[in-house]
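Risk mitigation, structural track. In case the binding assays with 3-methyl-2-oxobutanoic acid fail to produce interpretable data, a predicted complex structure has been prepared as a fallback.
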Amino acid sequence: MYASSPDAPRKPLTVPALAAMKAAGEPIAVLTCYDASFARVLDSAGVDLVLVGDSLGMVVKGEPNTLAVTVDEIVYHCRAVGRGLSRALLIADMPFLAEATVERAIASAHRMVAEGGAAMVKIEGGRPSALEAIHALASREVPVCAHIGLTPQSVLALGGFKVQGRENAARAALLAQADAVVAAGAQLLVLECVPTELGNEITRRVPIPTIGIGAGPGCDGQVLVLHDLLGVSGGRRPRFVKDFLAEGGSVRGAIERYVAAVKAREFPAAEHGY
Ligand code: KIV
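Fallback model:
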């Protein structure tokens, strides 16, 4: 039985439970969220993990990218979201360069956990500073979610939001990054915009759960930006996004439909992958 089925007890989800979900082959449903009202809907709809992502810079503040999001903003939104959760586990996104030094990473994570109430902190990238930050936090028993593939905080260096890991060298680099974040102590791994086949390979290779966004149906779980799922983000819709509002009929219906589709491995379909 899925932990989020209507009959399951509504015990808060814990970090160790995520490894058990991977081991049991139970898909993990993840959404971003930025306020208490939506958090209540996500939680009661059976979303397992709720991410206060730095995507808030784009979908809440209307900025062109995520780079101007601050630790203060993440903490503010975590506090709001946390008030709406009873079962789902809260993850806070480490903003651009907040992990640039170990001291800064620890101070930022301290605020996100102690003030924001996050149970896990997400760090983008597999570069040395990110690995050092993951290790510094994990060794101090702060659970860390790594994030590789398309890392939106690298948008200036990448020259845009592009699929990663298509060529052999890039693919080998991502496999090495996946190993490195696990060795550094990450307990969850977001894979963004990588070919489906690479998403499958990394998911088989690493002992921790993978959460895909544009990484194919083989990942251990899936994440979408809430505003994308509801079709209100504006702009061109990326291939990996599905507008669940159209088929769900209401906001709650859309979120319930998303959870059901992830749990049944009906979303993402082949057409949502690269
Ligand atoms: O900031 C965010 O919302 C994210 C998800 C897209 C994974 O990092």
